[in-house]
Write a structure and sequence with these properties.
The chain is mainly α. The protein has a domain of 330 residues: Serine Threonine Protein Phosphatase 5, Tetratricopeptide repeat, CATH 1.25.40.390. Helices cover 48% and strands 3% of the residues. Strands 1-5 form a two-stranded antiparallel sheet. A two-stranded antiparallel sheet has the order 2-3. It is globular, with a radius of gyration of 25 Å.
């Protein structure tokens, strides 16, 4: 009798457990259906985090471009990019992070959005940001998966030729610009950058087009010229009010990644380099008005940089200027390290530098090299907190005034000042430094390699996508940091 009762109880339990077996496959913490607008917002956040981050595990371009140097662990300062697998992190952040979410958003929009014009706008805007994401992949690695990327049925995608991808990206950008209707709606508040304003996204797309045209000016001058001129005719950024900003918030988890990396993590092992800070004329009446926004004073109330790569535990960080400030002297946090300091995807200062370069190359975009050069510097200073008067005074300095500025050619003069303006945008500084080869950056004393002109492919690709990886490496001339990419001609 007892055995019969026990069997009955066990059968009842098993029956209860197996009756709703399909429910076991449902994860209550991860919904199976996500609104397209939520995917778009998350993709914007992931993309901005990637280009903004100062993590040694991801975005190390401030160190490569010698804006900052490490004081303790010098791996990244010394160009060692495989120790913490930064190529893998960038690849993942852009492919499985930003691009994957943009692509999913595009696929869900036709179901989520009833108005056809709004659907079209939202798909085009998401596609513009996909083009932006691929721009960084192609200019970082060279040949990458493109035609077979983001396809669940292609787990081992082939790599496409970088220049061919670039041509396709420009075509996509033109299609997206044509598709956006300023009379229709889009994402609204789900778009953290422009609040869903279609006109702003058209201007963003044209400004990105200008940037992409200038990037290939040494590779394909004919295409570059037509691309730049058509973008300017259609309308690019004209003030800092156009800047593509992702506004972070003051409380986690959606805070400024630099605050997370440096303040929340209580890290003090990044300081400004003497090479970079000395370009800002520190501790003089003529110092760059951006200096107090870029760095903190040291424990003596001075702006002092450390020689690049001179650390390895021998530097006392309080003797040097930390990023942003004032942090050391009174414990407060400067703009760059505020938790709600915005991330920047594209800005007006860079646009004016691109226009200055376009005029120097003979493109028809209006203005003069000097007028765009002056506008670029002024935009950078006022963005960081300086005044127009500060900018005018700065532009009178002999090493800044265009006629006598540092650099022996117009392009070198532009590059010297754009290098300063792209502080906090080290990735873009790296792209321009490779194109124009200016300013010249001396290698750190214990460099693991020559200056990296590309990143090697992720270790995960080398181990898993072996056949396609080998073909890609052979096609570009070897998977090395010294292999120049297609746009880097000189």
């Amino acid at each position: 009798m007892k055995k019969t009762a026990l069997i009955f109880v066990l059968m009842s339990i098993l029956s209860a457990c197996t009756k709703d077996l399909p429910k076991l496959n449902i994860d209550p913490k991860n919904p199976s259906v996500v609104p397209s607008y939520a995917l778009f917002t998350e993709a914007e956040r992931l993309l901005t985090n990637t280009v903004t981050s100062s993590s040694v595990n991801l975005n190390i371009f401030r160190l490569i471009e010698q804006q900052w140097t490490e004081t303790t662990y010098l791996n990244e300062t010394d160009y060692q990019i495989t120790y913490r697998k930064q190529p893998d992190a960038i690849w993942s952040a852009l492919y499985t992070g930003a691009l994957s979410n943009f692509e999913k958003a595009k696929s869900f929009i036709p179901t989520d959005v009833k108005d056809a014009a709004t659907q079209k706008n939202e798909i085009a805007i998401a596609d513009v940001l996909e083009v932006y994401s691929y721009y960084y992949l192609v200019t970082t690695f060279g040949n990458v998966p493109y035609t077979q990327a983001l396809n669940i049925n292609q787990p081992f995608p082939k790599y496409d030729d970088a220049a061919t991808i670039y041509t396709a990206l420009l075509a996509r950008l033109n299609s997206d610009i044509s598709a956006i209707n300023t009379s229709a709606g889009s994402y609204g508040s789900a778009d953290v950058v422009y609040g869903g304003d279609p006109a702003s996204w058209i201007k963003f797309a044209n400004t990105l087009k200008l940037k992409m045209g200038i990037t290939i000016s040494d590779f394909d001058n004919v295409t570059a010229k037509s691309t730049v001129e058509s973008a300017v005719t259609a309308g690019v950024f004209t003030s800092n009010g156009d800047n593509a900003l992702f506004q972070y918030v003051a409380t986690p988890p959606n805070t400024n990644p630099i605050w997370v990396d440096l303040v929340q993590s209580q890290r003090h092992d990044f300081v400004g380099t003497s090479q970079f800070i000395n370009l800002l004329n520190p501790n003089t009446p003529t110092q760059d008005p951006r200096l107090p926004y870029f760095f903190a004073e040291n424990n003596q109330g001075l702006y002092v940089g450390a020689d690049n790569g001179s650390g390895a535990g021998s530097l006392v960080y309080s003797k040097y200027s930390l990023p942003s400030g004032p942090l050391i002297t009174d414990g407060s946090i400067g703009r760059l390290t505020n938790p709600d300091f915005p991330g920047l995807l594209l800005d007006y200062s860079e646009t004016e530098f691109n226009l200055a370069e376009a005029v120097a190359r003979g493109y028809t975009v209006g203005g003069t090299v000097q007028s765009h050069y002056n506008a670029a510097i002024t935009a950078s200073i006022t963005y960081w907190g300086g005044s127009a008067t500060d900018a005018a005074t700065y532009l009178l300095l002999p090493n800044v005034a265009y006629a006598t500025a540092t650099g022996s050619t117009p392009l070198q003069k532009i590059a010297a000042q754009e290098y300063l303006a792209l502080y906090n945008r080290g990735w873009d500084a790296w792209i321009i430094n490779r194109r124009l080869d200016y300013p010249t950056l001396a290698p750190p004393p214990n460099a693991f390699s020559a200056f990296p002109v590309r990143f090697t492919y992720p270790i995960s690709e080398q181990n898993v996508n072996v056949v396609n990886y080998n073909a890609a490496a052979a096609a570009i001339g070897g998977d090395k940091v010294t292999t120049k990419l297609f746009f880097d001609k000189f």
